[in-house]
Amino acid sequence: MNPELLLLHALPLDGSMWAAQLDLLPGATYAPTLYGFGDRVEDWAAEALKLPTGNKVIAVGCSVGGSCALEVAALAPERVAALVLIGTKAARRLDSGLHVTYATRLQEMGLSAAWHEWWKPAFARTTSAAIIAEAESIVMRQPLDDVLRGVEAFHTRRSRGDTLSTFSGPVHVVTGADDVLPGLATISKQAGIAQNGCLHVVPDCGHYVPMERPEALNSIIRQLINQIAL
Question: N or C: which terminus of the chain carries fewer CB neighbours within 10 A?
């Protein structure tokens, strides 16, 4: 059975954020847009798992996509060979009303204002204007209701420290050196929690590593593909 890549996107983007990774495993790479899969990360994971067919899945997730990757591993550990978690926190602060606060604020602000206030600053200052403009174009073609669904999913996700600590396969934890969401100190702890964890800090990069520094991420994924294929 050959490896397959399951690429799980960040908020407020969609599956097209993985354009630079789609050729790593031609014919065996899946980059779904998750919002239509439901209101919970568990729903996203269950639907995303229907795309690959084998038991050598490399689940790669950025931000809430990383939370979805952990959920995929929790649902089907026998099918997931490795995890790549980018800017992802396994633990979640319990606050039952937080998602309502953010959803209300997003509705009041609108998507464009939220992009400029919440998400654009998560890119590194050194990231090219062209990459940031491409990300903005992706964001602005999302229906507001879909992004609201994503906010709901993010703020109601389960804590998955248990999955991170018990998953037996390789776990590559990736962060941009300039990422403040959630930051290097928090991300470093994720690699330490994993049984087989490895930390990668990408210089001159913010939260959205697949778009900002695709060559660095692709090198990590290629090594994993070769390892899993053996």
Answer: C
**Distance between CA atoms of residues 204 and 38, nearest Å:** 34
Mean pLDDT of 210-223: 98
Beta-sheet strands, E only, within the chain: 4-8, 29-30, 57-62, 80-86, 171-176, 197-202
Please provide the size of the chain in residues.
Answer: 230
DSSP 91: S
Residue with tokens 């309502």: 100
Residues 6 or more apart from 97 whose CB is under 8 A from it? none
CA distance 165 to 203: 27
pLDDT tens digits for range 144-159 = 999 999 999 998 999 9
Compute φ and ψ for 201, nearest 5 degrees.
Answer: -110, 115
Residue 92 has a pLDDT of 78
Q: Measure CA 65 to chain center.
A: 3
Q: Is the pLDDT of residue 97 over 60?
A: no
Longest dimension (CA), the chain: 52
Listed residue (34, 78, 96, 85) closest to 62, CA to CA:
85
